[in-house]
Amino acid sequence: MTQISSGSTPASTPKPRRPRPQVMRLTDAAAQRISELTQRADSEIVGLRVGVKNGGCAGQSYTVEYAHDIRPTDEVVEDKGVKILVDPKAVLFLLGTEMDYKADKMQAQFVFNNPNQVSACGCGESVELRPAKIDG
Fold first, then answer.
1. Are 47 and 64 in contact (CB under 8 A)?
2. CA 15 to chain centre
3. CB–CB of 49/66 below 8 Å?
4. What is the separation of C-alpha 94 from the centre of its chain, rounded to a whole number of angstroms?
5. In angstroms, what CA-CA distances link 107 with 60, 96, 125, 135?
6. Which residues, in sequence order, are CB contacts of 136 under 8 Å at separation 6+?
7. What pTM, to 2 d.p., does this model score?
8. What does the alpha-carbon distance between residue 88 and residue 50 come to, in Å, rounded to a whole number?
9. How far is residue 37 from each of residues 43, 46, 47, 66, 119, measured CA to CA in Å?
10. Which CATH number fits domain 24-129: 3.40.50.2300, 2.60.300.12, 2.60.40.740, 3.40.50.300?
11. pLDDT tens column, 30-69
């Protein structure tokens, strides 16, 4: 049996890229609260922007604000029908985090269950985070 060659050599196929892990996931309670906030906002918002800023007695704190647009550098997480936009500087600190929403008689707030959290201050307003270790 004779093989017919087209005269060209097959191009080297690039290695398949490993799927990127989802930076964060949401509990049902967090997704429901984000949906409520999105619908009740005074102006059109595309979701919530989540990040980390320096400050507080433990060194860092989580930030959550309305996102009116998607920036080219945002990490877009769509989960349970809502969008959160993660600040690119916060991605390594938030990798693997579950965002929850808890409400009781005294307070209502988003809670971050973060495997990268080393410690938290006594008042609960700030945390110490380390960047996630990524297996290569």
1. no
2. 26
3. yes
4. 6
5. 21, 25, 13, 38
6. none
7. 0.75
8. 10
9. 11, 11, 9, 9, 29
10. 2.60.300.12
11. 999 999 998 888 888 999 999 999 887 778 888 999 999 9
What is the tens place of the pLDDT at every residue in 80-132?
A: 999 999 999 999 999 999 999 999 998 899 999 988 888 777 666 677 776 77
Take residue 68 and report the two structure tokens written for it.
């009116």
Domain limits of the chain?
24-129
Question: 3-state SS string over the chain?
Answer: CCCCCCCCCCCCCCCCCCCCCCCEEECHHHHHHHHHHHHHCCCCCCEEEEEEEECCCCCEEEEEEEECCCCCCCEEEEECCEEEEECHHHHHHHCCEEEEEEECCCCEEEEEECCCEEEECCCCCCEEECCCCCCC
Tokens 């110490």 -> residue: 128
